[in-house]
Amino acid sequence: MALEKITQVSGKGIHVPGADLDTDRIIPARFMKCVTFDGLGEFAFYDVRFDPETGEKTNHSLNNEAYSQATIMVTGENFGCGSSREHAPQSLQKYGFDAIIAESFAEIFFGNSTTLGLPCVTGPKADLEQLRTAVDADASLEISINLIDKIVTYGEQSFPIEIPESAREALTSGKFDPIQELLENSAQIEAVASQLAYIAQ
Amino acid sequence: MGKTLYEKVWNAHAVGKLADGRTQLFIGTHLIHEVTSPQAFGMLRELGLKVKYPHRTFATIDHIVPTENQDAPADALAAEMINAIRENADEFGVTYFDLKSGKQGIVHVVGPEQGITQPGSTIACGDSHTATHGAFGAIAFGIGTTQVRDVLATQTMTTEKLKVRRIEVNGKLRPGVYAKDVTLHIIRLLGAKGGIGYAYEYAGDTLDNFTMEERMTVCNMAIEGGARCGYVNPDQTTYEFLKGKPYAPKEDKWDEAVARWDSFASDADAVFDDIVTINAQDIEPTVTWGISPDHGISISENIPSPEDAATPEEQTTIKEALDYMKLPAGTPIKGIGIDVAFIGSCTNGRLSDFREVAKYLKGKKVDPSIKAIAVPGSQITAVLCEKEGIDKIFSEAGFEWRAAGCSMCLAMNPDKLIGDQICASSSNRNFKGRQGSPIGRTILMSPLMVAAAAVEGKVADAREVFDVEAIPASA
Ligand code: SF4
């Protein structure tokens, strides 16, 4: 079993506006009582998608039907700050996002996302501003993130992206999740187990 | 140069170094419960993986189980969580102690009770109080959901080696002072972050003379002291506890097992990264006044005041805690009114806890204004208590005698504080909102102190309420 090598992510974009979007905003704490992370998708950004008072849909971009096919989120600064809950990137991935492009990411959120194979890349402020405008103007705009050449392309445009080398290496070599390495050592695992009397019982 | 138990267990279980420099550690025993395991099983399914050693994984349900009627989950989500663990255990072939088994209970009570928890082993569970199992001379970690998956799939996890601090408690505890007071005292002394980067070795003749249940109470709260795990070296007390337990080695393998277990104990010349010594006589019945487990004072002390703080940071902390707790600074903690009394949890929900309280509670009445609940840590504990008539003593005194589960320790089941109710609790965490109400308040203490508070309707000194010196404490 090998994990997919994530070298390129392509899809339609959606602009989720705001800076410092924290993990509580991404997935409200009350939805953490759950049996699988799978169901978390529908609760992503719940409290900004639905009016807390009336329960009515807000006019948030995530409620815009035209963008229902989007798989790449384009957003602002310090995305994913707050608590370390793995539920946050889990909910975004389950909601249908394959990658996030932002001005910057909170460190723990970034690490959690990489482990899940959800690339988070940053780019120059001006280029991101242009991308957000383009996405806002055209819901069918195709975006492509190339992790080998470290470049984002859309329409006629392109700009360089940044991602820490260790994370890029992990994603593009399909080793973003430690389980791979753990599994590969099965012979050593069994050797250790065979020396332990309480395992053999 | 001698080795510590921690080093010996580590060496016996290290699989190898990973590319990032961390160690892949073999986990001999994996305990799971309904809250943090379903996502991990989901990941296994997604990855098409199996449980590597199903016979080394043991499951039960505890966090969401209702304690009034165990078979009536509070809502659809709770029912779904129960179904999930049943189905996962079944599908992946792991041992599961269900409600009907007569063996269900808080995962950290069930492991020792079944003899699954053994000296010289490594144990992991998606729950921070896994440290409890260290009482048997095991190295026991609480882990996150992704690590639960890793252990299920590979029986290993990635981790880094800890330093070891030996905490020696010597001398005889005063009457009315219990293992809970010892552990609260240690946390008060070393702080809630004092143990970061450490494994705690609890030792000294006080610990040597402790029963296994008392040792579990101490190790349980290693995590509140910031340590990743805590342990006591295995000895005759450990072996006597384990002998005859369902999963303990059988008669023909017994001597061999004991010899092996003995070999894991820290050597007399073992070198520690740090040593702390405590005189048992200095420990008083201890209670918390704030919102962190290291906010502890003895029952005869005053609630701290922001003015007494040594640093501006401490001042802010005291202020924040007192604002939340709505307690008057600088006044005695004794006499603070309570609304709820809770005896239970993986810290203090074992037979000896209820037995000790029953001895003093007999013939006394809970103040009519107090809601008092007693929740055995496991179905086996409940049956043992009921055989001795302990349940009757609690009920006659005005406690509600409930069925096994975590209950009001974290209130994921229907047992919750309401509004800003204040609870005298034998559990382990006094964080904001811990007991189910976002503004609920918790005062941690020993089970006998909870009983005293229930009888008086306010925080009280159990030694006075129950005339403790007059009745000899149980051995
Ligand atoms: S009793 Fe409390 S601390 Fe122990 S496992 Fe249950 S919820 Fe966690």
Blueprint of the fold:
The complex is a heterodimer of chains A (201) and B (475).
Chain A: E1 8-15, H1 23-26, H2 46-49, E2 72-74, H3 87-95, E3 99-102, H4 107-115, E4 120-122, H5 125-137, E5 142-146, E6 151-154, E7 157-160, H6 165-172, H7 179-184, H8 186-194, H9 197-200
Parallel strand pairs in A: 1-2, 2-3, 3-4
Antiparallel strand pairs in A: 1-5, 5-6, 6-7
Chain B: H1 5-13, E1 14-17, E2 23-26, E3 29-32, H2 38-47, E4 57-60, H3 76-92, E5 95-97, H4 107-114, E6 122-125, E7 139-142, H5 145-154, E8 156-159, E9 163-170, H6 179-190, E10 198-203, H7 205-208, H8 212-220, E11 229-231, H9 236-242, H10 251-264, E12 274-279, E13 286-288, E14 296-298, H11 312-325, E15 340-343, H12 345-348, H13 351-361, E16 371-374, H14 379-387, H15 390-397, E17 400-401, E18 422-425, E19 441-444, H16 447-456, H17 462-465
Parallel strand pairs in B: 3-4, 3-6, 4-5, 6-7, 9-10, 9-12, 10-11, 15-16, 15-18, 16-17, 18-19
Antiparallel strand pairs in B: 1-2, 2-8, 13-14
Bound molecules: iron/sulfur cluster.
Iron/sulfur cluster binds at residues 62-63, 106, 108, 127, 129, 345-346, 406, 409-410, 427-428 of chain B.
